[in-house]
TrEMBL record:
InterPro entries reported in the protein's UniProt record: Bact_solute-bd_prot1 (IPR050490), SBP (IPR006059), TAT_signal (IPR006311)
Protein's UniProt name: Extracellular solute-binding protein family 1
Signal sequence range: 1-35
Source organism superkingdom: Bacteria
Keyword presence, Nucleotide-binding: no
Record carries keyword Calcium: no
Entry keywords, A to Z: Signal
Amino acid sequence: MRSPLSRRGFLAAGSGLAAAAALPAMSGCSTLASADSDPGTLVVHTQLGTTAPGSPTYTAAVKDFEKENPGLRVKNLVNGDDLPQVYETSRLARKEPDVVMVNLYDKTLAWTDVGATVDVKDYLDDWGLRDRVLPAALTEWTDDEGRIRAFPYFAANWPVAFNTHLLDRAGVGAIPTTGDQLIGTARKLRAKGIAPVTVGGNDWTGQKLLAQIIQTFLTPEEARQVYTTGDFSGSRGARAGIDYFVTLRDAGVFADKAQGLTSDSMTTQYNTEAAAIQSAMSSALAKVPAKTAGHTEIGGWPLAPGAAHEKPTILRSFTLIGFWISPNGVRKLSSVEKFVRFMYRPDIVSRFITESGRDMALVTDTVSKDFPLVAEAQQLGDRVGQALLPDLYVPPTATQPLITATSTAFTRGTSAASVRSALESAYRTA
């Protein structure tokens, strides 16, 4: 995969500050993440610490870690979606933190390849932590060269939530499992003034649902090929999946003006019972109010005849937050090892599950009992099929253009050919 960042850009001696200054400005970026030469301070750049699910648990765990390791302090630098940009800027200036906690997605796909972070494969084995990681997670975090980019940590189930109270009001007696049933359900819901499927057609949530529906007629191998190359027209299965999506869209399955909705508006519509169905990752399911959760059933996305899957599908990912080690972190390897070992302990992992409703990429028997929808999704097992999450295969420079194309796709009346063209243009832009 072609990297948007050159090795020279990261590693050329003396170029760091100039390169950092040349990076495009990002709205909402915090100040430059910076290293700390004090051997008693471990600098961690993380997305946990504010409103992100799991933040309170993480903050408490860090305090416990410091108590157990007197003389070792954790300095947290917190960013949201702009963390990758902030980290890259700090790395170019040779001021990067020691550990980074972020998803494997978009910009971060290139980090290990260009030397922005280091391969952790040997550390995983030397520290005896390989058996703590789910095999599927190791597979997703391993690149084509056999390097493990980071220590896997958070995962996500991404099922479909159905509000059975609203379905009952509309006279729908069962959760739809086929496309025809879903269309019929949407018509009945609309007749009662209820939005059918709410979705963030203008952001990443819509992009993921679109990708899931496109894969209706694709095997995992075919899906990898399509999302690596962006050749949606050259694949019979991709063409059929886009046709299926357009059929559902123009039949009124998705909420009105879905092309302008975001993840926030999607969750608001579902949580306030203005919409009956949503495709939601587990962190969103954890925030569904108890009243709504009490009459929500978890399942998969309905299939069309001739689908490549035997059962309604969900998405699963093991590439949410992981622990990446920076070149600066290698200089404090003993402290990094203590931190990662602590966070991998079964009791700490269980706390994230029970206190925050997080799914984990590590081996555990703990279930999110206080988050019933998350627990239900964790226990779906083979009752559903699984579509491929395309994040690992989409070229980083195509990620944002694909979201723009997604908004086009969710606009009613846009032809299947135009949807294919918009998706393929995202790759040409890249």
